[in-house]
Design a protein that fits this description.
InterPro entries: 3D_dom, Resuscitation_pf_RpfB, RlpA-like_sf. Keywords: Signal. The protein has helices spanning about 1-30, 35-45, 45-75, 80-85, 105, 175-180, 200-205, 215-224; strands at about 90-100, 130-135, 145, 150-155, 165-170, 185-190. By secondary structure, the chain is an alpha/beta fold. The N and C termini lie far apart (about 70 Å).
Length: about 220
């Protein structure tokens, strides 16, 4: 008698499970029971085979989700280095170091009236288009350079030690200088030669260029 009751309970639990599963499936998918029945009869599927078919549905959904994630990675915006053909611009080999607005680089403290102000008069900036220091006889003020692993550099500053083919790249902290750059000898690309001037408005327009905002996120995230 106990065995009969046990078998009956198992049968009842199975029926309830199937009923609950089918109810949920119909509610989510919008498919009616009659449609399922007709489909199963056409293929001569048993209840067990039908359940196995339904169990495969979440797996297919997961596979589609994984595929979607892979597509998102594939479609992720390229870096500046890969997004454009830099070989079409004139290149020049330079030795580049990094500097900050602080006393360790400029001798000025935050309370100094000219703290963070470049030779051209604009404020130092680390952004999609950052301010850099150069020898004006090589790269006139306002020159836009593309510097691999740094980004766009706009010549806005000078320095007593920055002579010839040397650049000083602006960073917000000394830690950033050592962690992200240090000292490198590399080829830079002259995107646009300057005319000797650069203004805050010019820098703002460059950094707010709508077509370039996808690349700007890199520099915004670095600050956060």
């Amino acid at each position: 008698m106990r065995k009969v009751m046990t078998m009956f309970r198992r049968f009842l639990m199975t029926v309830l499970f199937v009923f609950a599963f089918m109810t949920t499936f119909f509610a989510v998918s919008g498919v009616e029971a009659q449609d399922i029945s007709s489909w199963a009869k056409e293929r001569d599927l048993s209840l067990k085979q039908l359940m196995l078919t339904f169990k495969s549905l979440p797996k297919e959904k997961a596979e589609k989700t994984s595929l979607s994630a892979a597509e998102q990675i594939k479609n992720k915006p390229k870096s500046l280095e890969d997004a454009f053909d830099w070989t079409k611009y004139p290149k020049q080999k330079v030795t580049a170091t990094g500097y900050t607005a602080g006393a360790e680089s400029t001798g000025k403290q935050p309370h100094h009236p000219d703290y963070g102000i470049t030779y051209s008069g604009v404020k130092v900036k680390r952004d999609l288009y950052s301010t850099v220091a150069a020898d004006p006889s090589v790269f006139p003020i306002g020159t836009i350079l593309f510097i691999p692993d740094y980004g766009y550099g706009v010549v806005a500053d000078t320095g007593s030690a920055i002579k010839g083919n040397r650049l000083d790249l602006y960073y917000e902290t000394v830690e950033d200088v050592y962690k992200e750059w240090g000292k490198k000898t590399l080829d830079v690309y002259v995107v646009k030669k300057g005319n000797g001037t650069i203004t805050e408005e010019d820098l703002l327009k460059l950094n707010e260029n709508k077509s370039m905002q996808v690349f700007r996120q890199k520099y915004k995230m670095a600050k956060e």
